[in-house]
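Case study: NAD(P)-binding Rossmann-fold superfamily protein.
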Amino acid sequence: MECYSTSMSSPSSSSLINLQCTQLLFQGSSFPHRKLCKKSVHPWLLSSALPKPFLQLTDKPRTLICQQTSAYLFSRNYRGTISAEAGKQSWDLGRFVRTIYFFNGPPSPAKFFDFLIEKLSGPSPNKPVNAMGTSDIVLVAGATGGVGRRVVDNLRKKGIPVRALVRNEDKARRMLGPDIDLIVGDITKESTLLPEYFNGVRKVINAVSVIVGPKEGDTPDRAKYSQGIKFFEPEIKGDSPEMVEYTGIKNLINSVKENVGFRNGKLLFGTEDNNYRPLDWGALDDVVMGGVSESKFQIDPTGGENGGATGVFRGVVSTANNGGFTSIRTKNFSVPVDLSAYDGLELHLKGDGRRYKLIVRTSSDWDTVGYTVGFDTVGGQWQSIRLPFSSLRPIFRARTVSDAPPFDPSNIISLQLMFSKFEYDGKLNPTFVEGSFELPISSIRAYLKDPITARFVHVGSAGVTRPERPGLDLSKQPPAVRLNKELDFILTFKLKGEDLIRESGVPYAIVRPCALTEEPAGADLIFDQGDNITGKISREEVARICIAALESPYACDKTFEVKSVIPFSEPFTVDPENPPPEKDYNIYFKNLKAGITGKEALEQSPIPV
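Here is what the predicted structure looks like once written out:
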């Protein structure tokens, strides 16, 4: 609802309080849900409950006490008429009632008395508006593995909040510390990945991998495993490659995708892939404060930019009876919408040169703070307007609420679009004109701001496309390529898991290291694409690359292999007293191209340029 506390042709405080009394009368289950005619309304209601400048009865006004119950509404059939004062217009009580009951009912008595006290105590002093909080937890899956535990260590050194997904809690706390934020679950078992475990997670580094170990066994600290399968005869230990590398990846993506967000955003209203997503819009105009403006929301099946369907917010706005706004508002969502993965809302609409407001509510109460932002449109032009969540301002009755809680994008209850004479805190809309208006709106979606960075970084393996590659000399390939079949098609399922990530719609980066070693980071690197290189690379280096990939737009939606320039035959060491500086991985990421996976050689398709 829009009410104004300003001296410019706005209702007085007493008028607003009277209006609140009227609304209170409509509260209670005893009020019939049926269309009212003006003749059936008790004269006490019409003469005094409504703000006096709006309406006047032909017979003598009476005093209304707010404590009167709604039973008075139908105690008799009133035969008088409603007339407007000079320069005023008749008020549509029936539309007022229909508006109230389309939504969730009028304010509670408690809210009324809070409002009364607020009015009597005067405006609060200006204070800075509370800033929106952020939560950027990075989930590390496989956090006790060779790469995973190094990812955790590096994230914590950077002060980045981290949550570890592990199967063995005791092992994880011994390895990562007793204060580590843990999820105990198994990606091969969907039932262990409960939605609440991932609250606050915005990015994921997946270092889970099927376990490969020596047939003859290993030392307690897995010394043979750490050398790489080049140095032992391998076999699969535990769950199969299909369960870990394919089913597990599918379960993990499904568990986190809503938390980390989709590249193309999340549609709230409109058409996507020939599927229409509706919202239950209703008019909420200045009739609720005695005005006569009127609007509606309709679907035009051919009015869209390309001849498709679009919604249309249209109506007539008038300042008669101290009014001056029209709006459409959704009914409260049955389940709050979580948009915490996104940066704002994007409206695709055909402008008319006027300034409108978007109001987002995070409370199910009828009359409450609305987080508001104004936006300008270009006349006669289809445009996409992005409204960052950080620009939303807490507004109640056209005034800023400086002590309101920060906007919570994880708990969105309703949306509202408004065309109003007023902005907030006494400011006027410079584009406001009385009369008819029309605003076609084809879609509303949440968006990720540019430049988009990877939200899901996956540690894969070089060689995943090679087992089936025609003309390849397997004798010159690493053991995993030669032994793919013997190892239950480990690389085949790794590639299938990669495909799930690429097809998920989540912004990703897929890192394919060559053979992993326990050597320190710091060697010069070679990045490549197309799945052709062989060599070795430090687990510590891979962990740093993964973290850098989360932060770089150049790594987003790229698949690449990486190795050090040091050959297998030469160990790599560093001076602990003089370690090499950390690399700027953007130097490597900038040369990567989208769409190159190595599958081009299997599908006989050209490599993207």
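For the exam, be able to explain this: The chain is about 20% helix and 25% strand.
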